[in-house]
Design brief:
about 15% strand; globular; alpha/beta; 14 helices
Amino acid sequence: RRRGVGCNQLITVEPPRDPAHGDLAANAALVLTKQAGKKPREIADLLAGELRKNKDVTEVTVAGPCFVNLRLADDFWRARLKDVLLEGVAYGDSKAGAGKKVNVEYVSANPTGPLHVAHARGAVYGDVLASLLEKVGYAVTREYYINDAGAQVDILARSAWLRYREALGEDIGEIPEGLYPGDYLKPVGQALAKKYGDKYRAAPEGEWLAPFRDVAVAAMMADIKTDLDLLGIHQEVFSSERALVEAGAVDRPLKKSDGSYTYFANDIAYHHDKARRGFLDMIDVWGADHGGYIKRMQAAVKAITGEARAELDVKVCQIVRLMRGGELVRMSKRAGVFVTLRELIEDVGKDVVRFLMLTRKNDAPFDFDLVKATEQSRDNPVWYVQYGHARGLRIN
């Protein structure tokens, strides 16, 4: 792909949706009509005539709104196989990015519990996107934004305090509504009991909230990093929302009446911090529930960076529904009932998770079926890849 000279549209050469139309389709006739001062059909016919002179092209047609479709010779494809074998993992490398800095922020789940299956999609998508940018010559920084300054981490601390009392031998009964009930906080409670003894058993909240919050967030982030490592994901930078707030980097006009900052204020400060670190190209991978937040965040980035003109590109990952043999697996993080990312990897394997998460466009909903992911049938695309690999080995 390349950008059309003097226009905002991209000239693309890519496989058509329908393979019957050929191996490649180009939209150049549509993009260049204004610059060339010709009708799209005239440009398409000119391009088609030149392409027919190429020995690697066996067929050229002009179709639809003046798309140029072409089919390539078998010898061309065979030569590409040789290129792939000779170049190995370097095949497809380019310097198009010219070393330009790009920040890709992805996952960034609230540190209030383990990662679950829905987080896997944004994690894999963001990681692969970052790898592709590196492949074409960009200097990529992979980043995780720790949301450790909002009300949710105070709830986490209160939940951990209950587990702390439980670790000290108390019967805490049923977890109250509004707190996190998952058993994953029991080890946190045990760690707090070992560290503080019964010092905070009967202490007022003002004394234990901050230290318990710090311990709980650190424990959750340690688990999150472990899970990401199991998925083959390694991020270089972990930025703290709380650190921005405590450094006074958040604008006062975006304070609430109680003196606390809005999420929007903290997010503006975070992206301003990215720009200060030299990232004028930012890519954020968000969940679908943040879709309505995109335009105002992009406008804020433009406003705070002024003449530097930083760009924020937001990629939205739609929901993932976990299925088991066609039946929906009901999950609720607040109720403590969910399938963790670690369990998913243990069930089907890291590579299967990564592969299947990329079989559907990021902005389309996706059903991940635990049964189909491991069965040897035409319903499982992983099986086709494994089958093709096995056949290739037999041929060799």
